[in-house]
Amino acid sequence: MGQIKRLSSALANQIAAGEVVERPASVVKELVENAIDAGADRIEIIVQQGGRKLIQVTDNGSGMDQADLALAFERHATSKISNAHDLAHIATLGFRGEALPSIASVAQVTARSATGDQEGSEIVVAGGSSQGVKPAPPMKGTSIQVRNLFYNTPARRKFLKRPTTENQHIVEAVRRFALCNPQIAFSLTSDNKDIFTLPPADLKARIGGVFDRFYQKSLKEVFLEKTPFKVQGYVGNLSLVRGRPKEQYIFLNGRAVHDRLLNSAVYAAFRSLISRGEYPFFVLQISLPVDALDVNVHPAKTEVRFKDEWRVYHVVKTAVTEAIKDIPGMMPEFHKPFDSAPGGGFGPAPDPQLANRGADLFESAPRPGQSHRSEDSPTFDGGQAAQRAEVATAPIIPDRPDRPYNPESIWQVHNKYIISQVASGLVMIDQHVAHERVLFEEAQRGLTGNPLPSQTVLFPQVLELAPDEFSRLLDLIPQLERLGFRLREFGKNTVVIDGVPIDVIWGREKEIIRDILDREEQGHSGAKVFDQMAASYACHAAIKAGDPLNLEEMRTLVDRLFATQHPYYCPHGRPTVVHLSLAEIDKRFERI
Asked: 3-state DSSP: the chain helix, strand, coil percent, rounded to 5?
C-alpha cells in the first residue's frame, strides 16, 4: 500500500486554520470583513477573556438563507468570485471561502442569519462537524458566536498571550476597520466594558473617536487625484510623531494592508521634519483600479502586489509632500499659559505680568504616601531656567575635591556643550545626555527604592487616550507615581495629571507618559521594564540642546553627572564626556 494518504476534511481545515486563524484578533478580522461585504452599516463586536471564551460579531447586512448558511461552512464555498476572471478583479474583502470553515474547525461556532423579515436559520459547528441547519427567529443580518477558540488544539491555545494582550490586538483590528469605514457604525465591548461606540462620521471625526480629540486637532488633510490613482486622508503634525511604528494606516480600495514601500513613501515626505527612529501618524485611503494590484498573495489578505509599484510610491509621496508643505502648520502644538522667564530658551513673554506667574504653576507636593508640606514650603518656579536651577540643587552632591573638571573655568558653547579646562587639556560635556544620565539613575532608584518627589500643578492637565492605551496606563499608575507623577481617572479613557516629577518642565508631562506607554507596549518584563520607563522619563525630562545655562547650573549639572555610577555614557550608550588632550590640541596647531 502506498505511503501517500488523503487527509480528512477536518484535519485539512485545521491545517488551513493555522494560516487564517493566528489569534482571536484574526477571527474578529474575518467576521468583520464578511459583515462589510454583506453591506452592513452597523457592526457590533463582543469579546470575553481576550477572545478566548467568546467572540461575537453581529451585523445588519444582507444575511443568508438556509441553503447559503449551510454552504458557508464548507471549504472554498464563497459568493464573492466564480471564475478566474473574477480572481483578477477582486473588489471584496473576502473571496477565498476559507475563513468560516477554518474558524469552525478549531472552535465551537453558532451562526444565525436571515434575509429581510423571513424566518431565520441557525447552524452549530464544533470542531468542523455540525448537525445541519435548523429554523431560528427572524432577524436582520447575521450573528456569529465563536466560543472556546482552539479548544481542540491545545498546542495552539497555549501559545496565546494573556487576555489583556490578546484584547489589545482585537482593539487594533477593530480600529483599522473603523478608520477604513467611517460610514459604518462600530461598537466593541470587552468583558462587559464598552471600548468603542462609534456612530457613522467623516474620517476626521472618526479619527477623533478612535483615538482622542487631540489627534483630531493635530491633522493635515491629504488629497491628490491623479488618474487612475486617488489618495486622500490625513497626516498628523509633529505633535503626533511617536517613537514606535504603529499608528500608520494605509488602506487600498477599502482594504487594510501592510506595505513597506507605501510606508516609506510617507516617511520620505517627512524626511526633513523627523529624525531616525521617529514615526509620523497617518491614515491614507488609496483608490486604484482593481486590476492594478493582486491581493491573492497571503491568506490574511494584508499583503498586495502592484503592477507599477513605483508609480504608486511617487503618487503617495507627492500627496503627502503637498499636504505638509506648510512647515509652521506642522510644528508641535505646545499650549502653555505663559512664556518662560528670560533665559528659559523660549524667548521673552509677550506680557510681563504673565511672565511673573511662573511661581503660581507649581507647589510642593509630597512623595506617595506622605502628607503635604507646611505652608512655608518652597515653591518651584515655572520658568524653565529658574526651575532647572531649583531642581539642580535638590540632590546632595558629595564633596569631591578631586572633581574631574575645573569649576572655575567652565563655559557653555552654542547652548549645547559644556567645556572646562583640565590639567591634561579640555573636557566637553553634552548637557542633554549628561542630564539624561543623572535622571535615569534617579528614576531607577525611584522605581525600585524611595519614590521621587512630586510637585503639584495648579493647572492640572487632562490626558485623553485611546482605549487600549488607557487600559495599559491604569496598570502603570503605581510605577508612574514612584517617578513623581500623580494621576486620577477623569471620565472615559481620560486621566488628569495633578502632579509631576520636580525635574519635568511644564508641558512635557503628556509626552513623557505617551512615550512610556509606547515602550511598555514592546512587551519587556522584569527589570527591563523599569529600565525602559526610566530611560523614557530621563530622555524627555532632561534639558535640551539649545537651553542656555548659567554658571551655577552648569557646575551643579556636572557635579550631579560625576556623582552617578556611570557618568561617561547615557542610557542609550551615547558618550556624555569627550576628552581632548593637550597633546592632541598641540598637534592640531602643528606645535608638535
From this structure: 35, 25, 40
* pTM of the shown model: 0.67
Domain map (residue ranges) of the chain: 9-200, 209-330, 352-579
Taking residue 258's Cβ as centre, other Cβ atoms within 10 Å add up to: 13
Domain 209-330 falls in which CATH fold? Ribosomal Protein S5; domain 2 (3.30.230)
Count the neighbouring beta carbons within 10 Å of the beta carbon of residue 400.
10
Could you give the CA distance from residue 40 to residue 455 in angstroms, rounded to a whole number? 51
CA–CA gap between residue 436 and residue 538 (Å, rounded):
5
* Record: fold of 352-579: Ribosomal Protein S8; Chain: A, domain 1 (3.30.1370)
The answer for residues whose C-beta is within 8 angstroms of residue 195's C-beta and 6 or more apart is 171, 174, 188, 189, 467, 468
Q: Give dist(CA 199, CA 216) in Å, integer.
A: 16
Three cell numbers written together for 343: 533665559
What residues in the chain have per-residue pLDDT under 70? 1-3, 5-20, 76-97, 295-302, 327-329, 331-405, 520-529
pLDDT in tens, 477-516: 888 888 889 998 888 888 999 888 887 877 778 888 888 8
Cα separation, 318 vs 231, in Å, equals 10
